[in-house]
Amino acid sequence: MIITIVGGGSTFTAGIVKSIALRKAELEVEEIRLFDIDKERQDRVAVLVKWILEEDLKSGIRLTVSYDPAEAYKDADFIFAQMRVGKYAMREKDEKIPLRHGCVGQETCGCGGLAYGMRTIFPMMKVIDDAEKYAKPSHWILNYSNPASIVSEACRRLRPNARIINICDMPIAIIDVVAAALNITDKKEIVYDYYGLNHFGWFTSIEYRGKDILGDLRDYIMEHEILLPDAYLKDKAALSNKNKDGNRHAKGSWYYVWKGEYEIMSNFPDTLPNTYLNYYLQQKEFVEHSDPDHTRANEVMESREKNLFDGIDRYLETGVIDETVFYAGSHGDWIADLAIALKNDTKARFLVITENRGAIPNMPYDAMVEVPAYIGKNGPEVIAQDRIPLFQQGLMMQQLNCEKLLVEGCIEGSYQKVLEAFTLNKTVPSMKVAKEVLDDMIEANKEYWPELK
Ligand code: NAD
Ligand code: G6P
Ligand code: MN
C-alpha cells in the first residue's frame, strides 16, 4: 500500500501521517509520499514527518518526498488531498475583501468561499487526472481540500467517474466538543444522523450507547449559553489563540461560532446546527464582531503555521521535538479510518459529500449533499433520509444553486453566472455589493482564476 499526500506542505500533514502510521497494520501501508508545488515548505514539513515515522513511531514506513506528479502518484493506492490553492496569503484576501464591503469574510463560506472555489476547481481536476494517469486503477482520492462543497460539485460536473470522496472534519470536530461538554470519554459510542450540504447542515439526532443525548446537549447549551466544555470555559487560556495545546477549533475567533450554536438553537431548538451555519444565519453579527484588519487567516499564520515551522527549525537546531507544534487527532484519524473502510470493505458509517440520488427526497437528484453512508470497497452506499423541513430545504436550495452557478460560471468563463452566484449567496445584502466584491475578487485572483467574459 502506497499513500500519497497532496499538499505535503500543509499544516495538517504531520497529524495525518501520525494517524496513518498508528493504523499501519489495518492499512498495510509500506510507503507514504508527500507531493506539493512549494518545495521549500514541503521540505521543512518532511523533516517532521520523517521524525514521526522513523524516531517517534519507528514505523518502518518508507517516506518519499517529491515534486513530480509522475513519481508521487505512481502506483499509489490512496491519494489524500489537502491543498490550499493560493495558500494563506490568498485566504487572507478571501476574508478581508468581503469585509471591506460589509459582508462575511470567511475562507469557505460566502464570497471568500466562492473565490477560493474558483481557484481550486482546475487544480483539483489536475489531481484527478494525475491519479488516473499514474496511480493504481483501483485508487481512491480522499479529498479534504476546501471549499469541499464547490470542489465536489466541480468533480461531479467535470470528472463524474473519478474515484474521489470529498470529506469534512467539522461534524466530527463538533462531536468531539459535544463529548467533552457532556463528559463522554468513549466518543466512538456516539452515533448521529445528519444532513446538509458541506459546511451547511444539521444534526437531527445524537445518541450515546443507544440513548438520545440531543436533549441533554440542548440543556447544556442553554445553561452555558455556548457549546464549549466547562473545562475550556473555566480556563480562559485554553481559548487563547496563543495556546499550543488543546482543541484547535476552540481557540481565537472560533469562540463566536460556538456561541452561535447557542444563539441558533435558542431560535431553532430541534436540531444541532453545523457551526458554519452561523455565517449564513448571523451574517450581520459576524461582520460586526470581525476585525477587517485581522482575520482568522492572521490568527492561523500567527499560531498553527508559526508554531509548526518554528518547531521544525528548533528541532533542526537542537534535535529536540515539541509534539505540541503539530495537530494530531480527529482530523487525521477520520481520513485514515475512511481509507481503512474502503480498503477492508468494512461498511463502517461515515459522513461524506456525495451525489444525492434521492437520499434526501426533496432535494435535487444531482445535488452534492453531506449525509451518512456505509463505506465499502466500491465507495459510499448512501443511507436514505426522510423529506427535510421547508426552512432547511429553502436555505439549502439557495446555497446549492449559488454553488452550482459558480461552478458553471468557472467552467464557462461566464462573468454573468459568477455574478449570479455572488448575488444569490445569503451572506451578500444586495446585487450592487455582490458586483463590487466580485470585481475586487477578480483583481485579487488574477493569477488563479480563469478569465471571466
Ligand atoms: P496550508 O497552506 O498549510 O497547506 C496547503 C499546501 O497545499 C501548501 O503547502 C501548498 O503549497 C499546497 N498546494 C497549493 N496548491 C497546490 C497544488 N496545486 N498542488 C499541490 N499542492 C498545492 O493549508 P492548511 O491550513 O494546512 O489546509 C490545507 C487544506 O486542507 C486547505 O484546503 C484547507 O481548507 C483544508 N482543510 C479542510 C478540512 C475539511 O474539513 N475539509 C479541514 C481542515 C483543512
Ligand atoms: C474546520 C472545517 C475545515 C476548515 C477548518 C478551518 O475543520 O471543517 O473545512 O478548513 O475548520 O480551520 P482554521 O483553524 O484553519 O480556521
Ligand atoms: Mn470542512
Question: What would you note in describing this structure?
Answer:
The protein has 453 residues and is α/β, with parallel strands linked by helices. It is 50% helix and 15% strand. It has 18 helices and 13 strands. It has helices at residues 13-22, 24-27, 39-56, 69-73, 87-100, 110-134, 148-158, 170-181, 214-224, 230-234, 254-267, 278-281, 283-289, 296-318, 330-344, 390-412, 415-424, 431-444, and strands at 2-6, 31-35, 62-66, 78-81, 140-143, 164-166, 190-197, 200-208, 211-212, 272-273, 348-355, 368-376, 379-382. The strands form three sheets. Strands 3-2-1-4-5-6 form a six-stranded parallel sheet, sandwiched between helices. Strands 7, 8, 9 and 10 form a four-stranded antiparallel sheet that branches. α5 packs antiparallel against α6 (110-134) and α17 crosses α18 (431-444). The longest helix is centred in the first third of the chain and has 25 residues, at 110-134. The protein is globular. The mean pLDDT is 97. Residues 148, 168-170, 199 line the site of manganese (II) ion.
- Indicate the radius of gyration in whole angstroms: 21 Å
Question: Residue-averaged pLDDT, rounded?
Answer: 97
Distance between the termini: 45 Å
Strand content: 15-25%
Let me know the largest β-sheet: 6 strands, parallel
Approximate shape: globular
Bound molecules: nicotinamide-adenine-dinucleotide, 6-O-phosphono-alpha-D-glucopyranose, manganese (II) ion
Q: Please count the beta strands (DSSP E, at least 2 residues each).
A: 13
Which stretches are low in confidence, meaning pLDDT under 50 for 5 or more residues running?
A: none
DSSP helix count?
Answer: 18
Structural class: alpha/beta
How are the strands ordered across the major sheet? 3-2-1-4-5-6
Tell me the helix content: 40-55%
